[in-house]
């Protein structure tokens, strides 16, 4: 099953989120075979978007989580709070949080451990900068991020782990990674995590300037379990193209 995750970032308020969630559901209307679709609105819109997607088969994700259930942590949101809104997935370690909010590998690890403990599916975001890529360090950087993010992680049989490979230079850039480079990275990610989880517990997604035009090229590859979409997920015509591409692949795989 292919997965599409829509990361709305801080781009839509509550009212816009509700409208966008409704429009997103319409992209699936009339289709029998559909991908797993996860919408990640801003925290303040989770409650209202939950009402829209409830009973639709579309899942709800959060863009971040704190690593404790409750306490004196001003401004933070716990996984148990997220679960109250039916949240099932959570982005962890997005490069924008690492770059602008001081999120470290150690914090990412605490969040991954906690998300698993409370039954959320962690979507661990990893990726290299352009300078690291040009220096030939991309694989080492991503491997190190993964090893730190997953330190002490023990998956139970019901647990799932998603990894989104998002080269930082491709995010919001209008220029996606080449398919060849993405596939090599996905293979490396699987091999690093092979001791930690079985193949059916792990999904490896690509993110970074995915849109209606290039989504099919990524999604038709066996190595690519799905895509994480930022900018194009808040432009419904673009996102419709991504959903259509995923549906095509899902139908082709089933036949
Ligand atoms: P983008 O963002 O699709 O706008 O490149 C992806 C992401 O940041 O998750």
Describe what you observe in this structure.
This protein has 255 residues and is of the alpha/beta class. The chain has one domain: Alpha-Beta Barrel (TIM Barrel). 40% of the residues lie in helices and 16% in strands. The protein is built from ten helices and eight strands. It has helices at 14-26, 46-53, 79-84, 95-100, 105-117, 130-134, 138-149, 179-193, 215-219, 236-254; strands at 3-7, 36-40, 59-62, 87-92, 121-126, 161-165, 202-207, 226-229. Strands 1-2-3-4-5-6-7-8 form an eight-stranded parallel β-barrel, surrounded by five helices. The chain is globular and about 45 Å long. The protein starts with a strand and ends with a helix. The model has no long low-confidence stretch (mean pLDDT 97). The structure holds 2-phosphoglycolic acid. 2-phosphoglycolic acid binds next to strand 8.
Strand and helix layout:
Elements: E1 3-7, H1 14-26, E2 36-40, H2 46-53, E3 59-62, H3 79-84, E4 87-92, H4 95-100, H5 105-117, E5 121-126, H6 130-134, H7 138-149, E6 161-165, H8 179-193, E7 202-207, H9 215-219, E8 226-229, H10 236-254
Parallel strand pairs: 1-2, 1-8, 2-3, 3-4, 4-5, 5-6, 6-7, 7-8
Helix pairs in contact: 1-2, 7-8
The chain binds 2-phosphoglycolic acid.
What structural category characterises the helix and strand content?
A: alpha/beta
Name of the CATH homologous superfamily: Aldolase class I
Query: What CATH architecture label applies?
Result: Alpha-Beta Barrel
Instruction: Count the E strands.
Output: 8
Tally of structural domains: 1
Helix and strand run:
EHEHEHEHHEHHEHEHEH
How do the strands of the widest beta sheet line up side by side? 1-2-3-4-5-6-7-8
Largest sheet: 8 strands, parallel, barrel
Q: Give the distance, in angstroms, between the N- and C-terminal Cα atoms.
A: 13 Å
Query: How many distinct helices?
Result: 10
Uncertain runs are none
Bound molecules: 2-phosphoglycolic acid
* Helix content range: 40-55%
Oligomer: single chain
Which fold name corresponds to the CATH topology?
TIM Barrel
Approximate strand percentage:
15-25%
Shape: globular
Round the Cα radius of gyration to an integer and report it.
Answer: 17 Å
What's the mean pLDDT score?
A: 97
CATH class bucket: Alpha Beta
